[in-house]
Amino acid sequence: MEKKQLEELLKELEHHKEIYEEMNLILDTTFDFISIADGEGMFLRLSKGSEEIFSVSEDEIIGSSCYDVERMGIVDNSVTRVVLETGKKISSVQITQGGKRFMVIGIPMFDDKGRLKRIINISRDITEIEKLNNRLKETEELLDWYRYEMLKKQECEETFIYNEASSMKKIFNLVNQVSRVDATVLLQGETGVGKNLIAKTIHKLSSRRENPFVQINCGAIPENLLESELFGYVEGAFTGAAKGGKKGFFEIANNGTIFLDEIAEIPLYLQVKLLHALEHHEIYKVGSSSPTKFNVRILTATNKDLKAMVKDGGFREDLYYRLNVLPIFIPPLRERMDDIPLLTHHFLSKYNNKYCMDKQLTMEAHKALAQYKWPGNIRELENVIERLIITCGQDMIDASHVYNTVYGSNERATIEINGIIPLKQAVEKVEKELLFKAMEEFKTTREVAKVLEIDQSTVVKKLNKYKNIK
């Protein structure tokens, strides 16, 4: 070989060496993992780090085919094999035996005759990215749950209007606790204290909130229809029964909550069937001998003393104890008078918005509301506020409007006649009692004068007159 040819050959070898070294540099410094296989799927070159990625050495992979790599479990799905079989560029997620996840792009290279010459895989580790994405997704789901729970709790707290020192705060905390379990709740309290609201709140805070809430007033349904309304009936059960039968409230409420209001009104014969339903979670439709299973949360309420009814034989003792698992007693409004200003403000806002008005109460009107005993509780207070907003012709509602609404006149008490006495003595007696009662409630002579519609000086004069009279 001539010297010139030898020099050219050496230069060419040097050039190939430089290309080889550059390729090695690229393979070893790139952030991605690169593998090169021949047209038969045999691995020729790998980037550094194969042991860390595949848990096997570089030497174990080089010289092995894509089929060997799959068979040995080094990867779950060889992208090289797929490119070899399809002759197309593909991208796929590949999982190594070490549990790492890679996004792999497989690129086929062809010669001048269209024959597959090389398969180049470019792989990027997405293990940490996927972990972060999963954590981000979990965090977002958790935040969504927290937001939902906070909004739900806020919504419930807004409906539970109470003073911080009120006994209703303790009731709300108890409602939060019992809503987490599926045990039966018995709500007790006078008419109008808010038993319906508490039942709905328990449902809203419970895991059943996305399912039906069915409320039944047991005292509003005729006794002869109550059983079929609660449990349903089958076709032909009685004359006039609907074709195909009818679902009862227990079936309608399935997977949700059923609220039996005025539970004391259920007749004794039906109490036996209700007890069976509660204990066995099954009902018998009217006209059927086959049980129907159900899954509901049971809430009940009454304004009567069930324990006294049990003693008198008007209510089954076994059913009473079955219902009284989680008792909640809601105190009447007269026992939580500090809640009246907050409730009043709430109802004023509600009905001012409803009727597009902006009426307010004077201080004397607020005091008049606070002095009334509210036998109808919150329901009566709401009714009175709505009526005041509608009927009062002034923007400021004063005490006289309140007295006229709650008592039917400006009189605040009924005078009783217990015997015959001289008229002058009777007038003085009533006048004295009225003055002292007004002073006890309103504290100042100015306010007493305004309520009694007399001069303040007259109040002072008459108080001094009767102060020393027994």
TrEMBL record:
Signal peptide span: none
SMART domains found in the cross-reference section: AAA
Residue ranges constituting the PAS domain according to the UniProt record: 19-65
Domain PAC: 86-138
Span of domain Sigma-54 factor interaction: 161-390
UniProt keywords, alphabetically: Aromatic hydrocarbons catabolism, ATP-binding, Coiled coil, DNA-binding, Nucleotide-binding, Transcription, Transcription regulation
Pfam families reported in the protein's UniProt record: AAA_lid_14, HTH_50, PAS_9, Sigma54_activat
Coiled coil: 119-149
NCBIfam families named in the record: sensory_box
Protein name from the UniProt record: HTH-type transcriptional regulatory protein TyrR
Organism from which the protein derives: Lutispora saccharofermentans
